Amino acid sequence: MKVNLLFMEEESYATGDIPWNNKDLEKDLDLEILYDTMAAGDPYIRDVCRKTILNSLKDRETILWRQDVLRDAIDNQNLVREIYTIIVETVNQAKKRLFWINRSKDPQFVVYESVNVLKLYVKAIEGIREKGREVLPLIRSQGFRQLFDMLINEFDQEYLGMIWEHLMNLGFPRGIPVRGGLGMGNSLTGYTLIVPETKPDGIIKKIASLRDPHYTYVIPENDENSARALEEMRARSLSETADIVRESAENVLSFISRLREAIAFLFGCINLWNVLKSIGVPVSFPVPKSDADGGIHYEDLYSVTLCLRTNSPPVGNSLNIQNDSLIFITGANRGGKSTLLRAMGQAQLMMQAGMFVAAKYFSASIASGIFTHFKREEDSGMTMGKLDEELKRMSEIIEHVVPGSRIFFNESFSSTNVREGSDIAIQVINALLVKRMKIVFVTHFNELAEAYIGSPQNPTFLRAERLEDGTRTFKVLQAEPIPTSFGYDIFLRVFGKTDEFNELIN
Q1: Which of these, 177, 196, 269, 411, has the minimum number of CB atoms within 10 Å of its CB?
Q2: 343 pLDDT above the threshold of 60
């Protein structure tokens, strides 16, 4: 049984290796509050959403497949909630029994408990099948349709009836029928479990069955040797059946678990969608492009995590460019540069998770890898200088990047002076561009950005807007860098005008 909700061809949903740079991504792009919002208090949903977002998809068809499934989930939220509830209740009950099954050496106990687990699973599949039957006319995505078609067609009433009959027989309500023979020294040999007959229909058939010739041996009350022999015969005859039934229970659990992972991710996306809608901000399904298409286009893009922290609509930004190989973001301090950078990184990750994004419209090429290199504040745990630490992280990134990766830099190499920091950044940028990386670089080093004006790299320049009175609009517009970050605006806001300040500006 396949679960093709998050992948066109069934794969592991959330068990893939977490990217080596997950801690940097989560810290730099402020992802923790995103996970928490999606989880809504459910640690399992949080874990699945975290792994699914960090393990970015790389092919366009799978992203679009997942988007279609998520659209159906959003349009049928009660369906997702009900399926998740059925699965969680079933898995919780089954795991308690499987715990003891996997530790027991008693074949009869294993068969008995495995049958009970299978009964739980069959009941859950019946419930999910009926939920799917109710909404099937409303479902558009291939992922959900394949799931429900499989449950409806392969688990019809006749097939389910046969399963229930087998499970009832495996309870051995009329004893354990075994066929065997006598070996050397009258030892019992050749144990074979006989398929139990169904319960006789009607009193006539029951009476007729009593006339069949049969023999009975009753073990004396104190005959311990005979009791042990009987116990051994029962264990040996059930051993193979116990292995088969246990394996069947584990296989069905595997299907239920994969379905639970997929539904948990969809449930998490629904939680986030509803929160953003309640705040009143735009959300949309992005348009992923192949690397050959290039370019980036967004309208009213905002930081989803800033929105969640403030519970209010942030300022959105828009851009439409064809060449996105190198983007510089400069301008006034505290003007929204880093916020826009995070918004772009968050949107890239969410798009490649098959999710909606925090924008009215978003389209970008699919990155073969997503990396961040943000300035770090000095702390007592650092064992090297800040510049050395920055260079070490840059070296690690270079070891892992592949052509088509997108790297987000935030005030990188600013732990040294302007000239040295700019020289280092230029060497790093040029080397990455040669290897076909895509770069978004926030910097207050105007010397760095100005070095690329009119260069063959043809970068895009964005600048945080500042009004004449010093007001920050938090709009980041397409504009070339200017030789100031207006740091004195912050000085004025903190200290006000002083005689020393007036002397400096006159």
Answers
A1: 177
A2: yes
Average pLDDT, the chain: 82
Q: Which domains does the chain have, with CATH numbers?
A: 1-16+55-178+190-207+236-279 (no CATH), 282-505 (3.40.50.300)
Q: Smallest Cα–Cα separation from 327: which of 429, 420, 188?
A: 429
pLDDT at 116: 74
At position 61, the amino acid (one-letter code) is E
**Helix (DSSP H) and strand (DSSP E) numbers for the chain:** 17, 12
Tokens of 182: 């006598």
Task: Count the Cβ atoms, other than its own, within 10 Å of residue 172.
Answer: 16
Strand partners of residue 330: 463
Q: Render pLDDT for 160-170 as a digit per residue (tens, 0 to 9).
A: 555 555 555 55
Beta carbons of 386 and 376 less than 8 angstroms apart: yes
Indicate the range of 189-203, 327-341, 421-435 predicted with least confidence: 189-203
The CA distance from 23 to 36, in Å, is 16
pLDDT surpasses 90 at 439: yes
Q: Kind of pairing, strands 361-365 and 287-289?
A: parallel
Chain mean position to CA 245: 32
Residue 101 token pair: 């099954």
Give me 472's structure tokens.
């920050």
In contact, 75 and 273? CB cutoff 8 Å: no
> Rg of the chain's alpha carbons, rounded to an integer?
33
Task: Pull the structure tokens for residue 216.
Answer: 């009975």
